[in-house]
Design a protein that fits this description.
This protein has a domain at 486-601: Tetratricopeptide repeat domain (Serine Threonine Protein Phosphatase 5, Tetratricopeptide repeat, Alpha Horseshoe). Helices cover 77% and strands 0% of the residues. The chain has helices at residues 2-34, 38-48, 52-68, 72-85, 91-102, 106-118, 124-136, 140-153, 160-171, 174-187, 192-204, 210-225, 230-242, 246-260, 265-276, 280-291, 300-316, 322-339, 346-358, 363-374, 381-397, 401-414, 419-434, 438-448, 454-470, 478-491, 495-508, 515-528, 532-545, 552-565, 570-583, 590-601.
């Protein structure tokens, strides 16, 4: 008995040793293959191919290696061996035909392919496997014939249409591809999401708009011939949104909304997409359409709320415009007259106060609004804290510094572990920075650098580095004090005065370490003024001259956004996003840069 156990143990050891040897051999052969040393890889693969356990693993590399050395006879021999070892796997049958064609024997290759189709099994997975094998070797006509057989064998399975359409796309047959996709949603509108996903990928790579124009013409024709089939209008709206053509999407959405009596739901959702893409004009049209339906409409309040909100967004992301601010003030007051000042409108009250203080210099009125809101009985703690931070900001604009510090301190204490608390603490540190108390600011920032809020942590780190780099023993306080004053002017929305001060720093101290931060700030101001060329040149200067400094990745990301959204330079935008990913892997912008890069490349982003 012990002797038997010993022999079994030795057998297991031998098997383990053999498996390990195989793994090492495969690794070595693959390395030769990768290095294009095909004669060497072929010798090793030839010894391994008879082992059924590894044959599938090495097959593709081995056959391709034989093709590279023009040994088509040996390749055919190996493929036939695989057919014997794995008779249920159709991939090898297709590869055999491919080996004949590559050797120059087109007739034998076609005969092999025809035999495969004659003997095709009544099995969906087998049909798909064969079709994919044909696609892999670019035998698209045979792939189509395979899928058509599948359609006949499984008449109730419409997913073959998607595969057929994909083959037509590979062949460049746009009309046929679109007919398959649209034909599928004619069968059932339940396939609309699948069709849209496939088409989205096609459209992202449609630089010459060939697919877009053909799809547009096809959908218009379908709408005209089938006016009661709303799925084609749905597709047309979707197409317009994909192409960022929101005005046509708005017009089509209105038509469907009226026909289907949707109460504005479609328009409300479209408005959100428009806002995300900064098409505020079309978003406003969507909201006005809903508002015109009357106060009984379920989206009436939300439409009015969002209408004022996007007007706020437009004003606060551009250079100061007093006329627009006065118009917005009246719109806020009309809104509050209709809906009141209560728990559901607190965010708008906060934003209203911001416009009063930062754009219209109505400091006292803004303070009164926020005081009343904070003391409102129905305010939840978080909303109240947000209002306190806004009130502190306004005290800071009024240069009532210690009132601002007191409020920031309250929020930081009450919300120690929340983003709003971290924000308040950061703003408190900036007060000290603005007034030149750099050591006090640094003490506050040291705590924040470990914040769980990545954005605040990053901002704290940046400001801390600015202070550390510019208040050392070899540096006077003059330059950083000027920078702090300019930054304070920028905070108070005194952009022209801030720009003048930043300009002075660059002119007076061109070699000082604070110059890169100064130029970056100049760029942001020019961007807010819509002087995009000037902004881009300054961002570029920061990237090229200060690649290791704190704002290098910020400047690179800002340039990428400008080239994507303002200059419509897709190629350069992709290069800049890629540079962020590779050059600054720890940057806060990496995740968004990767997403934008993939979108511009044409990937489908879920």
């Amino acid at each position: 008995m012990r002797q038997l156990i010993f022999f079994i143990y030795i057998a297991f050891l031998s098997l383990g040793s053999f498996a390990q040897t195989n793994e090492e051999s495969i690794e070595l052969a693959n390395q030769y293959y990768k290095n294009k040393e095909y004669d060497k890889s072929n010798i090793i693969y030839d010894k391994l191919i008879n082992d059924k356990n590894v044959a599938k693993t090495i097959f593709n590399n081995y056959v391709n290696s034989l093709y590279e050395t023009k040994d088509f006879k040996e390749a055919s021999k190996i493929i036939k061996k695989m057919i014997q070892l794995f008779p249920a796997t159709s991939v090898y049958e297709v590869e055999l035909g491919n080996s004949y064609i590559l050797s120059g024997n087109q007739k034998s290759g076609n005969q092999q392919f025809d035999n495969i189709l004659k003997n095709i099994k009544n099995n969906k997975s087998n049909i798909t496997e064969i079709a994919n094998s044909f696609i892999k070797i670019k035998q698209y006509e045979y792939a189509l014939r395979t899928l058509r057989i599948g359609e006949r064998m499984f008449p109730n399975d419409n997913t073959f249409n998607l595969q057929i359409a994909a083959v037509y796309q590979e062949m460049g047959k746009i009309k046929e591809m679109l007919n398959e996709y649209i034909g599928l949603i004619e069968i059932s509108n339940l396939y609309i999401n699948d069709v849209q996903n496939y088409l989205q990928n096609a459209l992202e790579n449609d630089d010459n708009k060939i697919i877009k124009n053909a799809l547009f013409d096809l959908l218009i024709a379908k709408i005209q011939s089938n006016p009661n089939e709303y799925v084609f209008s749905e597709m047309l709206i979707w197409l317009s949104i994909q192409e960022r053509e929101f005005e046509p999407a708005f017009n089509q959405s209105k038509t469907l909304d009226r026909r289907l009596k949707e109460n504005g739901n479609r328009l409300f959702n479209l408005a959100s997409v428009c806002v995300a893409n900064k098409d505020y004009a079309t978003a406003e049209k969507c909201y006005h359409y809903i508002i015109d339906k009357g106060s009984d409409n379920p989206y009436y309040f939300n439409a009015k709320y969002e209408l004022v909100n996007i007007q706020y967004l437009q004003i606060t992301t551009k250079d100061k415009d007093i006329t627009k601010a006065i118009e917005l003030k009246k719109n806020y007051e009309d809104f509050f007259h209709e809906f009141g000042k209560n728990a559901s409108t607190i965010t708008l009250i906060k934003d209203y106060a911001h416009i009063l203080a930062f754009y219209l210099d109505s400091i006292d009125l803004a303070i009164n609004e926020l005081d009343a809101t904070i003391n409102m009985g129905s305010v939840n703690q978080l909303k109240g804290a947000e209002c306190k931070v806004e009130l502190a900001d306004i005290y800071l604009v009024a240069e009532e510094l210690w009132d601002a510090v007191l409020l920031y301190s309250q929020v930081a204490s009450d919300f120690k572990n929340d983003p709003i608390g971290h924000l308040a603490k950061f703003k408190k540190a900036k007060v000290f920075f603005y007034i030149g108390e750099f050591r006090w600011a640094q003490n506050e920032l040291n705590v924040l650098k470990a914040s769980t809020s990545k954005l605040i942590s990053n901002d704290a780190m940046d400001l801390s580095i600015i202070i550390t780099d510019n208040i050392g023993e070899d540096s006077s306080m003059t330059e950083i004090s000027m920078y702090a004053r300019a930054d304070f002017l920028l905070f108070k929305n005194k952009t022209d005065l801030a720009l003048e001060t930043f300009d002075s720093i660059v002119k007076l101290y061109p070699w000082h370490s604070i110059v890169d931060e100064t130029i970056f700030k100049q760029a942001t101001i020019y961007e807010s003024k819509k002087n995009y060329n000037k902004a881009d040149s300054l961002y570029k200067y920061v990237c090229e001259m200060f690649p290791s400094d704190i704002y290098a990745d910020d400047a690179l990301y800002a340039r990428a956004l400008l080239n994507e959204t303002e200059f419509n330079n897709k190629t350069l935008a992709m290069e800049l996003y890629q540079e962020i990913i590779t050059k600054y892997p720890g940057s806060l912008f990496v995740v968004e840069a990767r997403k934008k890069f993939r979108t511009l490349r044409g990937d489908i982003i879920n």
